[in-house]
Amino acid sequence: MSNRLQKEDSPYLQQHKDNPVNWYPWGDEAFSKAKEENKAIFISIGYSSCHWCHVMEENVFLNEECADILNEHFISIKVDREERPDIDKHYQEVYMLLNRRSGGWPTSIFCTPENKPFLARTYIPPHSSQSSIEGMGFIELTKIIGQKVLENDEQILKNADEIEEFINKKEHPKEATLLKEDFVKNFMLQVKNNYETKHGGFTVAPKFPHASTLNALTILDRLYDDKAAKAMILHTLNSMKKGGIYDLVDGGFCRYSVDEKWLVPHFEKMLYDNALLCDVYAKAYLTYKDESFLTTAKECADFWYESMSEDDLFYSASDADSEGEEGTYFVYSYDEVYDALKNNNYEDIESMLKEMSVTQGGNFEGKNIIRFDNGVIPSYFSDVKKILQNIRSKREYPFIDKKIQTSWSSMMIKALFTLGDIDNKYKQRAIKSLDALLRSMFIDSKLYHTTLIHKVPKVEAFLEDYAYLTQALIAAFNSTQDEIYLIQAQRFANIALEKFYDRGSWYFSKGEFETKAEIADNTYTSSVSIMLDALLSLSTLLEDDKYSHFAFKTLEYNSYELGRRPVIYPYMLSQMLRYLKGDRVIKSNIKNLEISANELAFLNYPFVVKRASQDKDFMVCGDKSCFANTSKINKIDDIIKKSF
User: Fold this and answer.
1) Is the peptide bond preceding residue 265 cis, with omega within 30 degrees of 0?
2) Residue 120 and residue 106: Cα distance in Å, rounded?
3) CB-neighbour burial class of residue 510 (10 A; exposed 0-12, middle 13-18, buried 19+)
4) Mean pLDDT for the stretch of residues 226-247
5) Is 55 helix (H, G, I), strand (E, B) or coil?
6) What is the pTM of this model?
7) Which residue in 276, 216, 271 sits closest to 240, CA to CA?
8) Nearest to 288, CA basis, from 296, 187, 521
C-alpha cells in the first residue's frame, strides 16, 4: 500500500511511495503529528540519482523490521534535496556542527518531537558493525532513540536545545581586508599544494572535476600568462576526457571518479556538472585553440540536448544504477565488443580493443569502460562509437529524473551561449531553452525553483535561481543584443537584492528556512559569486554604479576569508580581479557584432562585454571612457592591453 508520498511530484519521493515506512512529505501535518504523539522525528534527505540513497532504501527502508520501528516510534519525513535545497543546506549545517566534517547523501537526521535535531548521520546500515555509536546499525539506533524520546530523556532534550541555540547564532565576518591582486599568489600556492601531478585534478580519490578552479586558472593564465596555471588546466582537461568520468560513447560527464586516473566514475550524470564543464571546455578551446576541447564541449551539450531534454527544457539527472547494479548500462564485456567489431567487418580487432582499453580481465569489475589512455581519439572511433551505442540500446537505460531546475538549466543555457559564439547552432538552442525556461518557471511575476516537466511549479526560487538565471540572461544579451534580455536580467537582479541581500551578506533562502548563502564553490559555483558576476555585468552594461557598489560590499564582507583561503572561493577570486581591473566593452553596430561573434570570442582579456552602437568600426571602452577604435578585430587585444 502506498504511503503519503504517492501524491508528491518529486521523482525521488515517488521512488519511496511504496516503502513499508509510513513516510510524510515535509509539512505541517508531520510536525503536528510528532508533537501530538510525542514521537521522535526522522528526516531522510536524498535525491533520485543518488547511489547510496538507493542502497539505504534497499537495506533499510524496504526492511520490514526497520520500517516497523520507524512507524511505531517516529514520524518519518522524506525530503528531495534538489526540490528543497534550503532544507538540505540547513541540515548539512547541522551535520557539520555535530560531526565536525561535511556530510553527504543520504542524510539521516534525528530530532525531538519539536523538530530540534540531536543526531546526524549519512548512510546507516541495518545492523551494527561495531560497539561504538558511530557504527551502530539502524535497528539498534532507532530502538534506543525511540525509547529515550518516549521517556523524555533529559540529556537528549538538553543537547537538542544547545544545538538549536548554536545554529541560530549569527556569525559576523572578521575585519575587512583590502582587496588586491596579491590574493592570486596565495591562490596559486594553495592550488599547487592540492594539485595531483600524475593525472591532474585537485584531490586524490574520490576525484571531482572542480570546474570553478579550472575556470579561475584559465582566467589567471589569460591575465598573467601564468605557465603553472596553463600546465594544470591542460593536464587536467586532457586527463578527464580520456574516458571514464567522461562517457566517450554517449557523451557527458559522470559525477566524479572513484580513482585517481578519472577511469572509474560514479556513473550518475548531473546537469550542473555537464553545464559547468561544457563551459570550461568551450572556454579552454577559445583560450588554447585545441579542437579536442571544442569536441568535448559540443558532445557534452549534444548529449544533454538530444538525450536529456524535452520541449527545450533540460532534465536534472540520470542514475548510476540500472538492472539493479551500478554502471551496468555503461560497461562492456570483451566478447560483445569483439563480436560487434567482427560482425561489422573490422580487421586488426585486437589492436583496436587494446587501444580502447578493452581486455579479457576488464578495467571495472571484470567489464570494460571505454578509454583511450594516450588521450588521442583515433579516426575509426566515430563509426565504432555507433556500434557501441547500438550495444547499449539493447539495455535498460538508467532512471532519468525529469525535474526542471531554474538554476541548473540556466547553467547549461549559459554554456550554450558560450558555444554559440563558435557555432550558431548552439546559440539558437540557447535562445529556445531560455525562452522555454522563462515560460515554465516565471509565472504571474513569480520565479520558481523546480518542477517536474509539464507540471505547475510550487517551490519558489532561491538565491541560486535568481543568480544563475540573471547570468544566463546577460549571456543572452551579449550574444543577441536583444534589450529584452538585459531588462529581464536587471529585474531578477533587483528582486534578488531586495529578497536576499543584507549589507554585504547574502541569504540563500528566506521564509520557512532563513539560510545563509555559501560563498565557497562546493558541489557547484557559489550563488553569491554568480551574483557578483551578474552585478558587475549590469554595472558595465547599464552604466549604473549601484550594481558595482553592491558587488564591492559583497567582496568587502568576504574579503578576510577570500584573502586567507582563496582556493575555496575560486569564482569569487576571479570576480574580485574583474572588479579591480575593470570590464572592457566592445561597441559596434549590430551587424558587425553578429558577423564577428566568433573572432570576438577569441579575445584574450577575460572580462569583455558587447554593446550595440552606431559605430561602423569597433570601439573599445572601459568604465567611464573609450580608449580607441579600429576596423581590425586583430588589433583589439593590443588596444585592451595598452588600456591598463
Assistant:
1) no
2) 11
3) middle
4) 98
5) helix
6) 0.93
7) 276
8) 296
Residue 390 neighbours by CB distance under 10 Å? 11
Distance separating alpha carbons of residues 150 and 202, to the nearest angstrom: 47
Residue type, 207: K
Strand, coil or helix: what is 395? coil
pLDDT tens digit sequence for 402-415: 999 999 999 999 99
What DSSP designation does 26 have?
S
Q: Which amino acid is at 330?
A: F
Please classify residue 512 by burial: count the beta carbons closer than 10 Å to its beta carbon, then call 0-12 exposed, 13-18 middle and 19+ buried: exposed
Phi, psi of 107 (to 5 degrees): -100, 130
DSSP state of 368: B
Task: Show Cβ contacts of residue 604 under 8 Å, excluding neighbours closer than 6 positions.
Answer: 222, 287, 637, 640
Report the distance separating Cα 14 and Cα 513, nearest Å: 24
146/149 Cα distance (integer angstroms): 5
pLDDT at 135 over 80: no
| Residue 326 DSSP label | E
- What is the arrangement of strands in the sheet containing 515-516, beginning at the earlier edge strand? 501-502, 505-509, 515-516
Give the pLDDT confidence score for residue 189 in this predicted structure: 98
Question: Measured between alpha carbons, how far is 632 from 618 in angstroms, rounded to an integer?
Answer: 8
Contact at 8 Å (CB) between 506 and 517?
Answer: yes
Closest CA to 97 of 32, 192, 165, 25: 165
Under 8 Å CB-to-CB from 299, ≥6 apart: which residues? Answer: 251, 252
Strand 626-630's sheet: what is its strand order? 608-612, 584-588, 618-621, 626-630
Contacting residues for 606 by C-beta, under 8 A, at least 6 apart? 218, 219, 222, 223, 574, 578
Count of Cβ atoms closer than 10 Å to residue 204 Cβ = 12
**Rounded distance between C-alpha atoms, residue 36 and residue 55, angstroms:** 32
Q: Which of 301, 310, 231 is nearest to 273 (CA)?
A: 301
- CA-to-CA distance for 548 and 553, rounded, in angstroms? 9
Q: Where are the beta strands (DSSP E) in 107-222?
A: 107-111, 117-121
Within 13 Å and on the Cβ side, how many CA atoms surround 550?
Answer: 24
Q: Going edge to edge, which strands form the sheet with 74-80? A: 23-25, 74-80, 40-46, 107-111, 117-121
Examine the pLDDT at 131 and tell me if it is beyond 50: no
Q: How far apart are CA 540 and CA 530, in angstroms?
A: 16
- pLDDT tops 80 at residue 101: yes
Query: DSSP of 299-321, one letter per residue?
Result: HHHHHHHHHSEETTEE--EE-SE
Average pLDDT across the chain, whole number: 94
Which pLDDT tens digit goes with each residue over 301-337?
999 999 999 999 999 999 988 888 889 999 999 999 9
As to burial, measured by CB atoms within 10 angstroms (0-12 exposed, 13-18 middle, 19+ buried), residue 529 is: buried
Residue positions counted in the chain:
644
Is residue 79 within 8 Å of 45, Cβ to Cβ?
yes
d(CA 447, CA 494): 13
Cα–Cα distance, 534 to 547 (Å, whole number): 9
Q: What is the CA radius of gyration of the chain?
A: 26
DSSP per residue, 477-522: HHHH--HHHHHHHHHHHHHHHHHHEETTEEEEE-SSS-EEPP-S-S
Q: What phi, psi does 522 have (nearest 5°)?
A: -105, -105
Q: Which residue has the cell 538549536?
A: 164
CA distance 572 to 564: 13
Cα 338 to Cα 95, 346, 455, 551: the distances in Å are 49, 10, 45, 58
Amino acid letter at 420? G
